[in-house]
């Protein structure tokens, strides 16, 4: 499972908690991007009454942002900027988006997260709904039981990633300070920078191929104490 070199952001303190992203981190982003783009285009037409041409133009702009700045592109932020509220977006994607259908069990991901869970609590933080998250985790092979706790859009409510408030919910409920918390995700601006602003650290990965290196790094920090 040879990935690229991971990018470490933070002070190197030993973690007492590790927060994982879901989309594009625990399964390849290619399984996510085109599906969610199609759903967003459909949402413009059905909920906003936009023409298909206008919807296609919006989707094309988001697709280009994903291509050129994946690390800083949040679909939740995009739909909010275009006048949809979070609850509306979550309800629509729950009804029309089924990423789990195209996924398969990933033994490497299951094994690597189990290794890390033996030495430090791990949690999941995603902007997905609980239903979508559960379906994805089941298909990948982790299940919700693969994490100490899971946090979804129902938990972060009006402060979804990249709002630091989503991470603050995790910190408060887990009782761990930001300074001893690490985040692992495929988008620096969305999955890592908000925690860093709170005083935490993170590792940027380019999908599941990099998880082994990230887990090895974190285990090394725990053992060095």
Question: What is the structure about, briefly put?
Answer:
The protein is α/β, with parallel strands linked by helices.
CATH architecture of the largest domain: 3-Layer(aba) Sandwich
Beta-strand percentage range: 5-15%
Which class do the helix and strand fractions yield?
Answer: alpha/beta
- What is the molecular shape? globular
List segments where confidence is low: pLDDT < 50 over at least 5 consecutive residues: none
- The CATH superfamily of the largest domain is identified as HAD superfamily/HAD-like
Roughly what percent helix?
Answer: 40-55%
* Assigned CATH class of the largest domain: Alpha Beta
Q: Strand order within the widest sheet?
A: 1-6-5-2-3-4
- Rounded mean pLDDT is 94
Instruction: Domain count, please report it.
Output: 2
> Which fold does the CATH topology of the largest domain refer to?
Rossmann fold
Rounded radius of gyration (Å): 17 Å
What's the order of the H and E elements? EEHHHHHEHEHHEHEH
Number of strands: 6
Report how far the terminal alpha carbons are from each other. 27 Å
**Can you summarize the main beta sheet?**
6 strands, mixed
List the helices and strands and how they pair.
Layout: E1 7-9, E2 17-20, H1 30-48, H2 52-68, H3 75-81, H4 86-96, H5 107-117, E3 122-125, H6 130-140, E4 149-151, H7 153-156, H8 164-174, E5 181-185, H9 188-198, E6 201-204, H10 211-224
Helix pairs in contact: 1-2, 1-4, 5-10, 8-9
């Amino acid at each position: 499972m040879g990935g690229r070199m991971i990018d470490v952001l933070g002070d190197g303190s030993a973690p007492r908690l590790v927060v994982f992203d879901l989309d594009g981190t625990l399964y390849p982003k290619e399984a996510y991007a085109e599906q969610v783009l199609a759903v967003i285009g459909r949402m413009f037409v059905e909920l906003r009454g936009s023409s298909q041409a206008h919807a296609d133009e919006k989707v094309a702009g988001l697709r280009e942002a994903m291509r050129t700045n994946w690390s800083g592109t949040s679909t939740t932020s995009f739909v909010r900027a275009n006048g949809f509220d979070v609850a509306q977006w979550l309800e629509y994607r729950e009804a029309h988006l089924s990423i789990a259908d195209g996924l398969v069990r990933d033994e490497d991901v299951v094994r690597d997260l189990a290794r890390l869970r033996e030495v430090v609590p791990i949690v999941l933080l995603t902007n997905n709904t609980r239903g979508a998250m559960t379906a994805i985790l089941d298909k990948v092979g982790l299940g919700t039981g693969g994490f100490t706790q899971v946090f979804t859009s129902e938990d972060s409510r009006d402060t979804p990633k990249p709002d630091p408030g989503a991470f603050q919910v995790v910190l408060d409920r887990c009782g761990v300070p930001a300074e001893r918390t690490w985040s692992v995700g495929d988008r620096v601006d969305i999955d890592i920078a908000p925690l860093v602003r709170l005083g935490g650290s993170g590792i940027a990965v380019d999908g599941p191929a990099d998880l082994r290196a990230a887990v090895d790094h974190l285990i090394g920090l725990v053992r060095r104490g």
